[in-house]
Amino acid sequence: MKLKEYIKDELFKIILIIVYIILICGLLCAFNFGVQMAALMAVLAAIFFIIMFIWDFCRKRNFYNSLIDNTQRIDKKYLVIETLDEPEFYEGNLVYTAMYDINKSMIEHINQYERGQQDFKDFIEMWVHEIKLPIASLTLMCHNDKEHIDKKFITQLNRLDDYADNVLYYVRSENAEKDYSFGKVNLKTIINKTAVKNKDIILSNNISLNVHDIDTYVNTDAKWLEFIVNQIISNSIKYKKTSGEAYIEVYSEQRQDSGTDKVGQAVLHIKDNGIGIPAKDIDKVFIKSYTGSNGRNNAKSTGMGLYIAKNMCGKLGHNIEIKSIEGEYTEVEIIFYGDSYYNPVNIEKTDITQS
User: Fold this and answer.
1) Rounded distance between C-alpha atoms, residue 235 and residue 230, angstroms
2) Given this model, what pLDDT does residue 248 score?
3) How far apart are CA 227 and CA 309, in angstroms?
4) CB under 8 Å to 88, separation ≥6 — which residues?
5) N or C: less crowded end of the chain, CB within 10 Å?
6) How far is CA 41 from CA 53, 118, 240, 275, 352, in A?
7) Per the confidence metrics, is the pTM higher than 0.70?
């Protein structure tokens, strides 16, 4: 609260007080009390009113400055009322009471919204678990009768299974820390599981999967990392080149990065020679629901896969980066930092080539 603004707001009162003092002085002179008495009364009245304004300004300033400072300092600004003492002046008390009622109403609405959101999430999780049972049964029946069932049916079932997983993981991603189980995980195991899961669609799209140098241990959550890798592999399949030989290359490396305080990084590379990402879209691919020009040309795109992957990498303490040249390649890097908490250990490497 600024003194200049306060004086401007109280200017009408100040003018009235000045007029009042002038009238009193005029009356004193008119009744022959003398100029000195009139001047003395004017000075005393001025001092009195100045003290009154200073006192009023100070008590209001303390309250409103606390309100502004606390509002700027806290993240959940609607809780600012909890940080304030109830003011002793009437105007401030009206503001305090109104803010208290508004805050109480907002908290009630937030709690009601959160309960509704949680109920919806619980329903979605239950629905996904239920829907995956018939999907798994259909997939098993298709595999048991491959000779009479078109591979396209299996491909579509795999897509349904992936979409169900996407819904489940998205619902859980906001509170994923409750589901973490950190430990040393071999990237080879993660990649093998992802390759098996996508085997049918990789073969049906004539994509060569080249996997090498992945016998590396990192500290992470295996389930969530598998989901992240699967999202990237799925994108590589979805946006493969339409002519010529298509491939996906997966490998890891150890990197020492002097530009960060986290050294001893393990980096998982997933690279394809697909249609690539336009330069204007490359900085937006991790934005929620952003599909870009490729996504608009592909009805399968939702813009959620990379968003969830980026979000989860951040929560796991990893980093994900993407680089691409349109029409040539797309490469995604998942970086596992080798500090005291995330401690990747590179062991004997072997080359595995799958196609």
Assistant:
1) 9
2) 92
3) 8
4) 59
5) C
6) 18, 71, 93, 89, 101
7) no
* Number of residues that make up the chain: 355
Could you tell me the two tokens for 191?
A: 């990649």
Distance CA 214, CA 349 (A): 7
Strand partners for 186: 217
Choose among 287, 328, 283: nearest CA to 304: 287
Residue environment code for 70-96, b if the CB has 16+ CB neighbours within 10 A, otherwise e: beeeeeeeeebbeebeebeeeebeebb
Give the integer Cα–Cα distance in Å for 291 and 346.
Answer: 36
Environment class of 200 (CB within 10 Å of its CB; exposed 0-12, middle 13-18, buried 19+): middle
Q: Can you tell me the distance from the alpha carbon of 231 to that of 193, in angstroms, rounded to the nearest whole number?
A: 13
Q: Half-sphere exposure (CA, 13 Å, Cβ side) for 49?
A: 17
Q: What is the 3-state secondary structure (H, E, C) of 13-31?
A: HHHHHHHHHHHHHHHHHHC
Burial of 234 (0-12, 13-18, 19+ CB in 10 A): buried
Cα separation, 78 vs 32, in Å, equals: 62
Cα separation, 49 vs 300, in Å, equals 74
- Burial track 238-256 (b if 16+ CB lie within 10 A, e otherwise): bbbbeeeebbbbbbbeeee
